[in-house]
Amino acid sequence: MTDQIRRSSRSVCEQVAEAWRKRRYIAHFKSKLTDADSESAETQSWLEFALRCGYIGQEVFDELDRVYEKISGGLVNMMAHADQWCISIDHVKEEDFEYGLLEDPPTHSHTHTPTHKTLSSATTGV
After folding, report:
1. Is residue 108, in this structure, part of any structural domain at all?
2. Using CA atoms, how far apart are residues 53 and 64, in angstroms rounded to an integer?
3. In which domain, by residue range, is 18 found?
4. Residue 101 belongs to some domain of the structure
5. CATH code at position 7
6. Rounded to an integer, what distance in angstroms lies between the CA atom of residue 94 and that of residue 87?
7. Looking at the predicted structure, is the pLDDT value of residue 112 above 70?
8. For 87-105, how does the pLDDT look when each residue is reduced to its tens digit (9 = 90+)?
9. Are 26 and 82 in contact (CB under 8 A)?
């Protein structure tokens, strides 16, 4: 039961992060937020089991249940007002950025050597 609570509660955050990355597309954004809300509801369900089995007390359950009700309310609000959270494709632009390859790639497969400049080095010249 503990593993299930950990998995579903962590998944709420993961789904919100994925939704944020998909905010260029309202349908994808809402879909990921729906997944996050489902994981939140699953967490509440597992907490209910934990309470009924005596693993947690009523006070702990009530506090956690309140937290997840707030989370769910926020997710539903974001879905209802997705247009305020999403960005237009016209507004997404990658800054000019030079991608280069190393002239002599490393011969050791276990050694990781970057094959492109990082954003900070490309913009700062370092």
Report:
1. no
2. 16
3. 2-90
4. no
5. 1.20.1440.60
6. 14
7. no
8. 866 554 556 556 555 565 5
9. yes
What whole-number distance in Å separates Cα of residue 32 and Cα of residue 34?
5
Tokens of 97: 């950025």
Domain count, the chain: 1
Is 123 within the bounds of a domain?
Answer: no
Following DSSP, what letter does each residue of 55-101 receive, concatenated?
A: SS-HHHHHHHHHHHHHHHHHHHHHHHTHHHH---GGG--PPP-----
CA distance 110 to 27: 41
What is the pLDDT at residue 87? 83
* pLDDT tens-place string over residues 9-61: 999 999 999 999 999 999 999 999 999 999 999 999 999 999 999 999 999 99
Q: Would you say how long the chain is, in residues?
A: 126
Token couple for 4: 């299930």
